[in-house]
Design goal:
The complex is a heterodimer of chains A (about 290) and B (about 260). With about 290 residues, chain A is of the alpha/beta class. Chain A has helices spanning about 20-25, 35-40, 45-55, 75-90, 120-135, 155-170, 175-185, 190-195, 225-240, 255-275, and strands spanning about 10-15, 30-35, 60, 95, 100-105, 105-110, 140, 150, 170-175, 200-210, 210, 215-220, 245-250. Chain A has one domain (about 10-280): TIM Barrel (Alpha-Beta Barrel). Chain A has ten helices and 13 strands. Chain B has about 260 residues and is mainly alpha-helical. Helices cover about 50% and strands about 10% of the residues of chain B. In chain B, α1 crosses α3 (about 50-70) and α10 (about 215-225) packs across α11 (about 230-235). The N and C termini of chain B lie far apart (about 65 Å). Classes of the chains: A alpha/beta (about 290), B mainly alpha (about 260). β8 of chain A pairs antiparallel with β1 (about 40) of chain B, so a sheet runs across the interface. The structure holds fe (ii) ion. Fe (ii) ion binds near residues 175, 206, 208 and 248 of chain A.
């Protein structure tokens, strides 16, 4: 069974440095992904810009602070703000990360890995259901990069994320670069990861650059996507179909044209990898 | 069975990771925690778990430092990169982050500066930080439909006055507005004004924060408007001649700093 999630084509992350270019030129782009927190807590210029951009492009919301795996439970005020933005923006997709980002009342501003245990699965499944009930729509969880593993993990990462998605009824945002990074850092074959994920769970791909620190790969979202990650992307396209794909570039952000070039490369790969070429396909979403 | 040889709970792991991430360069306060956590971690590499934990610790300090540099760009300009980094480091170690949103990082910095050693050399730092924090609040606060002159006229003396959430007020004894407009790269040596300066912070038509000095009575009048008093109550509390009042209100309505009461 292939993915039933909306097929949006290829998008890029909406970043402050590109606001002016996007609004002045309305460049060709299938959709934009916003970082939810940058807009849900702001009633000023960011919201004004978002309203303008929504007139021209479909929007996908991607959060970084849901902290779905936090043993402290979910932050109800956060959920209320998230829901208010969702209700206003009506995004095509909503996602966050399979991780935790706060503990003991402190925000850690990072995507910290969870041990792959039954205890973590039960907690995350319960909390995903809470979120989905509250926002009244399904979410997707993204696999994160990590730099160590837990000795008491009971299963590999692909089994952990699949079990959670199946039991909680949520989707998977498959970050192809994070699979590549973790495959190097934790010494597994990235194809094993990709081939273990049931296609119907995958609603979105992320593609990004990373940095090589010799003994580990670091998920920096800097620079162009490397060739090996493009190859993995093609493997993923074959397995999962025409899944909405996002180009992430978050540090040393280049001129918009460079992001567009990366997006065009992804579109080209969709074209040559899949039977239904990108150009002839009808996208599922149009600006509201 | 000791804690060391049992399977750790998710909560224990997360609290230990929190301590590892939050620890400054001198980890002695959490050293036992570090040892306990490290023995539950592994790397498929010659790198130790401690080295890999360091990636998260450094990332935590860098992210909060970057966020503080954006909000407190004038504090950074005054102190220079090195002293500002020291201040950020000390602040981050002393004050955990209570906000999930990095854009709202640094709420406690004005308070932190009140007892900080840098205040000796730069006594105006807490006030400058407070002003920059108000800019941050102004940037992100919501705004509601503005009060229009015709609505105001309809209500007359019974007009309920409510400021827009993005309007902020600050009283200071330092020439902060001069400092903000200063082009020079040299560290300014400010002397107190010898009188209070009343500052109004609001948003301009491009949604950017803007600040201006206002008269003392205008300041108290706006302050009183926070409590949704009526126009007559506000004017009674702040005795000013009618000509001034008319002029101020016309100006404020043009700037859109009051909310429409029927909203
Ligand atoms: Fe990602």
């Amino acid at each position: 069974m292939k993915s039933e999630w909306p097929k949006l084509g290829v998008g890029v992350g909406l970043r402050t440095v590109h606001y002016e270019h996007v609004l002045n030129h309305i460049p060709e782009m299938d959709w934009f992904e916003i970082v939810s927190e940058n807009f849900m807590d702001s009633g000023g210029r960011p919201r004004y810009i978002l309203d303008k951009i929504r007139e021209h492009y479909p929007i996908v919301m991607h959060g970084v602070s849901l902290s779905i795996g936090s043993a402290d439970g979910l932050d109800q005020e956060y959920l209320e703000r998230l829901k208010a933005l969702i209700d206003e923006v009506d995004p095509q997709l909503v996602s966050d990360h399979l991780c935790f980002s706060n503990a003991g009342g402190d925000q850690l501003h990072d995507l910290l890995p969870l041990p792959h245990t039954d205890e973590a699965i039960r907690l995350v499944v319960k909390q995903v259901k809470q979120v989905q009930d509250f926002i009244e729509r399904p979410i997707m969880l993204e696999n994160v990069s990590s730099y160590f593993s837990f000795k008491h993990s009971e299963m590999p990462e692909w089994e952990f994320i699949t079990t959670i998605a199946e039991e909680a009824g949520c989707g998977i945002l498959l970050d192809i670069n994070n699979i590549y990074v973790n495959a190097f850092n934790h010494k597994f074959d990235p194809l094993t990861f990709i081939n273990a994920i049931p296609p119907h769970l995958v609603g979105q791909f992320h593609l990004a650059g990373h940095s090589d620190h010799d003994t580990y790969l670091f998920d920096t979202h800097v620079g162009p996507i490397i060739e090996d990650v493009w190859k993995l992307y093609q493997v993923a396209l074959k397995r999962f179909g025409c899944v909405s794909t996002l180009i992430e570039w978050d540090s040393h952000i280049p001129p918009f044209q460079e992001l567009q070039d990366e997006a065009n490369r992804a579109k080209k790969l969709m074209n040559i990898t899949l039977d239904n070429p990108y150009d002839q396909r009808r996208l599922d979403a149009h600006p509201s | 069975m000791t804690k060391e040889d049992s399977t750790p709970t998710l909560r224990d792991i997360q609290l230990a990771m929190r301590n590892a991430v939050r620890a400054g360069e001198h980890v002695d306060t959490h050293v036992n925690d570090h040892q306990w956590l490290s023995q539950h971690l592994e790397t498929k590499s010659t790198d130790s778990p401690e080295k890999r934990l360091e990636i998260y610790r450094v990332g935590y300090f860098i992210r909060r430092n970057e966020a503080l540099s954006v909000t407190y760009e004038n504090i950074k300009k005054v102190l220079g990169q090195d002293a500002f980094s020291v201040l950020c480091y000390e602040y981050i170690v002393a004050c955990g982050s209570k906000t999930y949103n990095l854009n709202a990082e640094g709420e406690d910095l004005p308070q932190f500066l009140k007892t900080h050693w840098l205040k000796e050399q730069y006594p105006y730092l807490p006030d400058l930080a407070q002003l920059e924090w108000l800019f941050q609040l102004t940037f992100d606060a919501p705004s509601y439909p503005a009060l229009l002159p015709e609505t105001a006229a309809r209500y007359g003396d019974f007009l309920p006055l409510t400021l827009q959430p993005h309007v902020q007020l600050l009283k200071t004894n330092w020439p902060l507005l001069t400092l903000l407009n200063q082009e020079t790269k040299e560290t300014p040596h400010l002397t107190p004004l010898g009188r209070p300066c009343y500052i109004l912070v609001h948003r301009d038509e491009n949604h950017q924060p803007i600040s201006r000095e206002i008269e003392p009575n205008a300041f108290y009048l706006l302050k009183k408007s926070r409590s949704r008093s009526t126009l007559s109550e506000v004017c009674e509390a702040v005795l000013t001649d009618p000509e001034h009042l008319t002029h101020w209100f016309a100006n404020w309505m043009q700037l859109g700093i009051f909310q429409n009461p029927s909203h």
